[in-house]
Amino acid sequence: MKVSDGSTRPPALLVGQTYPAGCSARIVLDHVSSKWGVLILLALSDGSHRWSELRRRTDGISEKMLAQTLKTLEGDGFVRRDAHAVIPPRVDYSLTGRGEEVAALLKPLTEWVAEHADEILER
């Protein structure tokens, strides 16, 4: 299957099956489910944030990783970047409709993890 970047990737399989390496669904799943991807999507689920706010909300993320993850999520259509022509420059990040949809799906998973993390790590 030809995709927009000109490469050929195998088609995604149905849910419950293993996605082959390089298929479009697996690539997007990697972006959304990465450690920082999940945290940024959840941080933005309560409204737009500036760079410094996102950095504080995603404690431990480096500037390089924040920039890289935001760029990836923006490229996938999950995050909107709004640059304002003011001095000093101001950039706000927010979720697109697609981003809101995926964040809503991530919330129950992350709530379950938070509820069970201590007992899981006690083992």
From TrEMBL:
Record Gene3D superfamilies: Winged helix-like DNA-binding domain superfamily/Winged helix DNA-binding domain
PROSITE patterns named in the record: HTH_HXLR
N-terminal signal peptide: none
GO molecular function annotations of the record: DNA binding
Entry-linked InterPro entries: HTH_HxlR, WH-like_DNA-bd_sf, WH_DNA-bd_sf
Pfam families recorded: HxlR
UniProt keywords, alphabetically: DNA-binding, Transcription, Transcription regulation
Taxonomy, superkingdom: Bacteria
Residues annotated as domain HTH hxlR-type: 23-121
Protein's name in the database: DNA-binding HxlR family transcriptional regulator
Species of origin: Spelaeicoccus albus
Lineage: Bacteria, Bacillati, Actinomycetota, Actinomycetes, Micrococcales
